[in-house]
Amino acid sequence: MFQELNFPKFEYRFKSTENKVSIFDVIRKKFIILQPEEWVRQHCVHFLINDKNYPKSLINVEKELTINGLKKRYDIVIFNPDGSIFLIVECKSHSIKIDQTTFDQIARYNLVLNATYLMVTNGLNHYYCKMDMEQERYSFLKEIPAYKSL
């Protein structure tokens, strides 16, 4: 039905209403209309929970933030237990090539959110970065760290 993605498989729940298919979001605890970007977001959420062991309680999905007076929405944020932000994830549809524009977008979000790690994915390609706030730069990583309880 949807594009096979470069994420581990997970048990998803669909429902169909008024000719629209929805997928259940375990974070928002409701069905969300299934668009290509949502398909990637749901795979990523399950990857973070099932493979990287992040507690659902520390994950936020699709919340609004204001950047330079403009309202934007981030895809996924993982908080540290102290409320600071550990990771921001920007999800794109599998058909969108990840380029400098995508990195610029997540970098703008991070000016407000101050996350330690950034992840950009279109479901096929994943990029991970660790921020160095003092040097105002980031370095690419092979993978994102797994959750370690404090």
UniProtKB/TrEMBL annotation:
Keywords: Endonuclease, Hydrolase, Nuclease. GO terms for molecular function: endonuclease activity. InterPro entries: HSDR_N (IPR029464). Residues 36-145 form the Type I restriction enzyme R protein N-terminal domain. It holds the Pfam family HSDR_N_2. It comes from the Bacteria. This is Restriction endonuclease subunit R. The lineage of its organism: Bacteria, Pseudomonadati, Bacteroidota, Flavobacteriia, Flavobacteriales.
